[in-house]
Design goal:
Pseudouridine synthase, 10-stranded mixed beta sheet, about 15% helix, single chain
Length: about 240
Amino acid sequence: MPNAPSFSAADLAARVLHRDGLMLIVDKPAGLPVHAGPKGGLNLEQFFEGLRFGLPRDPALAHRLDKDTSGCLVLGRHRKALARLGKLFSNGRVGKTYWAVVKGAPAEDAGRIDAPLAKRSPDRGWWMAVDPAGLPSSTEWRVMARGASLSWIEFTPLTGRTHQIRAHAAHIGLPLIGDPIYGAAAVGGPRLHLHARAVSVPMREAHPPVTAQAPLPPHMAETFAAMGWAEPAALAPG
């Protein structure tokens, strides 16, 4: 988790991956929630004033990432932009690519998970479970590399359910490393290995989509180095 006294608006501004008049894409740190929970605490939104870049209002979240998930997070810079982004996300038009390290290895090199998801508990609405009565949920995946007891998997969610990748990965017997809910994370063990690697946002019709890619967070970079996995070259700027 980012060190509370040392993380600042300047640190967040340094993590901007893309900026134009409509939207920002920032590299969210792992361990920092995007907004304050019921008990308050350090969160990303409290630093949004430092991302105005000349506009009169703070940008706002166009979607969410879990507290322990790192990587590409899209913000709208004003109301019209947020409305546009909201439609793009709700209609499944935003391309999202996630990297994860999972326990085990699939027999195939790629596949698709079609498994409806519903709330596991009425008391914890963000805990999900595969349930035939749940909402349709689909995730494509492919193996990027295999190692001793671990695999690097690229996930592409086709729907946008809460904890979709984490629940789907566990459903097919590939729980994410460091996942305390759907995996088998031990106290003091590795952190969640889930990273929003890239996004592609068709913000303007008849224009190429805006693309951005976030580098691995330090704890995942350490795992990659230990496994001898090489991170591919970055995308061209959006």
